[in-house]
Design a protein that fits this description.
TIM Barrel; 3-stranded antiparallel sheet; 17 helices
Length: about 400
Amino acid sequence: MNASIRSLIVSALVVTASALPASADSFKEPVGLQLYSLRADFTKNVPASLEKVRNLGIKQVELAGTYNLSPEKFKEMLDANKLKAISGHFPFARYKADPEAVAKDAKALGLEYAGCAWIDHTGEFNEASTRAAIEVFNKAGEVLAKHGIKFFYHCHGFEFRPHGDGTFMDLLMKECNPKFVRFEMDVFWVVHPGHDPVKWLEKYPGRWELMHVKDMKKGLATGDFSGKADVRNDVVVGTGQMNWPAILKAAKKSGVKHYFIEDESPTAAEQIPQSMKYLKTVKWLRTRSGARTDSILSFRAAALVNSPRSMNVNLGIWEKLTKVVVFLLGVAGLVCLFYWYLPLIQKNQRYRRAIIETDTQITAEEKLQRQYRVSTEALQNDPRTVERLAREKLGLARTNEMVVRFEQPARR
């Protein structure tokens, strides 16, 4: 194919593609595992359980205890299985009584983050419990920071109880020093009390640095502030109520740095591989301007949480439609090229050939002139030679003029 035609086709396809939504953006962050998910296995055999985690293809983990092993010994076993412990959970009472000891253990385990997953309280969680926790967290965060460890709090549902113009979670966010206290969002424990994870990620960007990727069984009622639920409500990620494309998109924008699957169900060992597989397929649409949008633009995430429809099915339809439209427009572009541009290119090629033929004729004429300059006297003495040569050159106009010029002296 002519280079000009190829260039036009490429240009047409580029313009066509840029006028449509680009391919979907995907979730590409590394996903770790909260080892509490396999607590039943760990209580029986720690080495075998760590090997199981490694065989799942997991490289980053979050701890929830060392199962009666010293931090040093547990770290040694992690290293043997090429597992990196990013974070770990420690009891609220330890942070309250001796944060220095927590920092020491966290350092021995090689942790980057040390957190708390439950605030000790009696009865209904209230403002007094919240403010007591704020004091403990700010102090513990400052102590851990001196050892190069980042402190975080993992939400557990009861903090979303209404308080004033917001919730107790808002009070924690506002009163905890951002310099020393970060947060881990457990998606299950945001939705269970009836809240929208996307809104919380957008409301406090930069504060959520870790996330528990945990799905909730469809049909389970929300609006519960107890912080407790049947572990059998944990299901394979992507099969429950959560709108994962919207959540993970918002998490990326909000600044979440580490993601951990947590599955507390009795069948966690079977469900974890399926959840990992699903997370590799999560996508959301990206528009031409760079702004990103979920596959169902007109619904809020809160409505989608209660919808029986699968977000991935809708997204797949949009992707397929986009590909079909791009293909059809590409075909239309090719048709236009062949019907409109190809004749122009062919005309251009004919014009170039005519120029080459003209140059060839001029070259032949110049050669003829050189032949006639060989000897003026000889030509004058033999005018018949002039006439013969001229007629052999296909009747060129300029040659006839030369014949006339050389015949005149002979006729005198």
